[in-house]
């Protein structure tokens, strides 16, 4: 039989173990002469011998346990097996703690299993490491193994990878693991679930837990189990490395991962490769990653981020890279990112100077020697698929890299400084001097002589033989200060000429420097930063621009305000149609009276508007009683005389001058009659009594000393500027125009007049049906609001425009109603917009259903959009190297 073939003894259970001569000499003779079955067949001899409490007979207990590694450990395991009943009874009688071998073999014997050691005994390795990956233990031995390791107090690493364990078996092992020294636990490639995770979280929550590394790769972990784990890890401050690779994590896992990333700031390594995080929810995940301030290494390769909503995902990556300044090592390999997506990611990465290693194989881009992402049209992923290097993988032996990926961390790049001294290094003297490094594919890179007498450049370069040469604006050259080498294959250098043509030059000799490899030091990063060239950054951003509010663009743009020019036309019309020319016979005095009227016609017109609104006459004019009240407020010295003269002057003024004055009420003064009355009154009081020498002086005296002060007491023109003509009121009217226009159209079509105009009767009907009338707001107030909202017309006696409101007058009338219906109370001042909001409920109730269709009440966002607009702004910024 071949010597390598394992021989079996008579028990058909234990393999015969080849022993060294030294172990043969040191072991007791009785072990060699005694078979397992012989020891079992002599029960009468062992009780006294084994129950005797002597130090030399403590085998099988923790007092005599010599460890789990080496030849002696194997012999101890063998001896424990052949003396299993005796050792068990002895320990029970003497109350000794079972050794790991005895505890393990006791369960094996009960379950009638083969006594395979499964890490309880190992040929070599540290005592603190139990590495039984790919032993295919299964749940069958899990119970026995758990009993064995329960007695091992100094285990720092437990590797159970690929042992066919299920949730029950893995949970059984972790439940009995009492070692507080475990720093690394590997459960990868077993099928675990909530039981295992719950037991594991109990271990992590323990104050004595020292777990630093947890690997759960390809464990079929469910979203529920992951949620339990991530909630515990959110508060954990000890774990440094976590692997959840190859678990088909998708949208259901995103929230748990985000919660962990948001609150755990001590985890440094996270391996999520070969999952489905790119299927959906990738933006939420990347936002969580951006907020993390502790993670240094993350592997996101093979997650299909570029498969669905690739541009959205690329922008999320770009934003994450620009925000997160703690990551140093990232793997995005094989995520189906195309050229455009790579451009977006590369732009965000330009503002990040802390990621020293970026893996992008399998996407349409490469990373250059300075760390920039260079998008390419298309890369054959199949040809480069075998070159992928795991980001968080620790190789078991040294391997020679097949292809350089320009990862400063994985390839142990080193910081060096190269100099060029004019007249010493060579003949190149023109400023600037460029260097061409082979790690840059010999692209030129400008050297600096700032504050120096020579040119220098500091760069990160890969270890090994570095080739380079120099150039200025005229020539290429090599330095005398560095070793040179004749190249087997000349370097083909492309350079443009003044006529725009491309020329090529073959460089057959270059400088060489051997760069010693230095292991990457995570705690002491290099002074040089990736992606740190000086550049002009063009930034495009969307800002909120305040929209300048103007009357010309508002609801009020169609309202004709009383300008000086317009009022002058009104004064001319009223003067011509009145009887003033007959009262004042002198032509010069006529012109003087006319000019005085024009200069005060704004006050006269506004006062007429208010007095006619108070009078209650439908053909808006001033009644005799209202006129008397006005005269009393003018504070005349001889008030009784004024009242007596008023009746006579009223009759003289209140007489139509021409035919066709259809809208001149016979029981009140219209506008031109009111102006005429004022002229007649001044003549009676001052000219006829000889108090003034001329009619002009009389009219000026009365206007300045009595009429104008009285008019100011009725002046309501400030309401426009102080309350109504405001931005917030305009926005309210615009956002409610659909309702207001519906109400206006409904009631303007009810009467006999024009269907696009609303008369006083229709306005009263609307207010009544809307339920606006109450004890404090009666028909008189409704008429006043109607009249005060009407625009001034030049001709108010032959045409009816001043009696029929258009839409812009209608909304002002509603605003005046709202202002009176909801007065300020208890010192609390309500804005007109707020009062209109209170009024809108009534307007909505009377608005036709057809007009309300599709309308929604405006929100705060609606008002915000009325005030602001989004504007794209392009700015340029010079970015200095850090």
UniProtKB/TrEMBL annotation:
Transmembrane segments: none annotated. It comes from the Eukaryota. InterPro entries: EF-hand-dom_pair, Leu-rich_rpt, LRR-containing, LRR_dom_sf. Residues 1-42 are annotated as: Disordered. Pfam families: LRR_6. PANTHER family: F-BOX DOMAIN-CONTAINING PROTEIN-RELATED, LEUCINE RICH REPEAT FAMILY PROTEIN. This is EF-hand domain-containing protein. It comes from Stentor coeruleus. The lineage of its organism: Eukaryota, Sar, Alveolata, Ciliophora, Postciliodesmatophora.
